[in-house]
């Protein structure tokens, strides 16, 4: 629902004394009925003014109709966000990031995802000029790691170089180091340099939309809803 002054626009109820034989004015855009033309015209002027904002993106300076279209596009983008990434991203937000500004949170998550991959995520294995579809089936650290400064407000996250991944090769492709049996983490031998995530999968605008609709400020920091 488009927002007016940061609140959902109130829909006018049909007056209880309206009869079936009374002349009324129906506004299809807002699904409202008015008993006078002046009220109908006033609402039309309001809906066409740039006073509205998109509930999902926060974009302002929109007409009611532009805000509706923005929300439809936002819902479509949210529906395209990979479900395999949702839980991992939210786990990262809750347990490793402590940000009070949304832009800082977005930058942290985007930076983490740049060279790191998540369990069950589908991405590509790079073999020369060929991109082979794979699924991450295991993740491990090849050496112990501890944050250097535990009092820092900056995120303390292991560098991408110490992660190794076990992969399942998809669509009939094979690899001698592919493994799907027990103790799979012991067979995580691929590093991040041979993997690639398509930009469209978790682009920054799409990630921004997902975080904006999945997180709230709680105790001066962003947390998951």
From TrEMBL:
The keyword Acetylation does not apply. Pfam families: WAC_Acf1_DNA_bd. It comes from the Eukaryota. One of its GO terms (cellular component) is nuclear chromosome. Residues 22-131 form the WAC domain. GO terms for molecular function: DNA binding. Keywords: Nucleus. The keyword Nucleus applies. It is found in: Nucleus. GO terms for biological process: chromatin remodeling; positive regulation of DNA replication; regulation of DNA-templated transcription; regulation of heterochromatin formation. Its main location: nucleus. This is WAC domain-containing protein.
């Amino acid at each position: 629902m488009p927002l007016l002054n940061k609140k959902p626009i109130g829909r006018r109820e049909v007056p209880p004394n309206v009869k079936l034989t009374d002349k009324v004015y129906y506004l299809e855009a807002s699904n409202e009925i008015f008993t006078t033309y002046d009220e109908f015209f006033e609402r039309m002027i309001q809906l066409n003014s740039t006073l509205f904002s998109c509930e999902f993106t926060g974009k302002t300076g929109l007409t009611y109709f532009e805000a509706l279209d923005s929300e439809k596009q936002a819902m479509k983008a949210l529906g395209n966000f990979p479900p395999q990434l949702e839980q991992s991203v939210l786990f990262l937000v809750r347990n490793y990031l402590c940000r009070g500004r949304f832009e800082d949170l977005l930058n942290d998550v985007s930076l983490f995802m740049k060279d790191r991959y998540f369990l069950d995520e589908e991405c590509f294995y790079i073999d020369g000029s060929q991109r082979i579809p794979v699924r991450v089936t295991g993740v491990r650290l090849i050496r112990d790691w501890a944050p250097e400064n535990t009092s820092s407000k900056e995120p303390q996250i292991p560098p991408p170089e110490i992660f190794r991944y076990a992969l399942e090769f998809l669509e009939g492709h094979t690899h001698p180091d592919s493994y799907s049996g027990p103790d799979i983490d012991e067979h995580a031998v691929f590093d991040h340099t041979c993997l690639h995530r398509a930009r469209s999968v978790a682009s920054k605008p799409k990630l921004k939309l997902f975080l904006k609709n999945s997180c709230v400020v709680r105790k001066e920091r962003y947390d998951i809803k």
